[in-house]
Hints:
The protein has one domain (about 10-75). It is mostly helical. The protein starts with a helix and ends in a 6-residue tail after the last helix. The longest helix has about 35 residues, at about 40-75. Helix content is about 80%, strand content about 0%. It contains three helices and no strands.
Amino acid sequence: MLAKHVLLASLQNGLEAEEKAISIYTTHLKSALFWTEIDKKGAAFIKESLSRLASDSERHKTIIESLITEIRKDSRNAF
């Protein structure tokens, strides 16, 4: 079992990691310099991959935020 505060701290770390990842993915998607040395086919593949990663991270962020909210409301002190 995990103490409530330990679980919340771990989820908060995960939330921060997702937020950083989203920032990195979207920065690269918007960076013209990043794309200058990449051929069109490769760029299209990378853009699709980064877009998917950003989208997945947004979804993960929402899930983690929901978990944090529910665990904070829960009266239990261990999970």
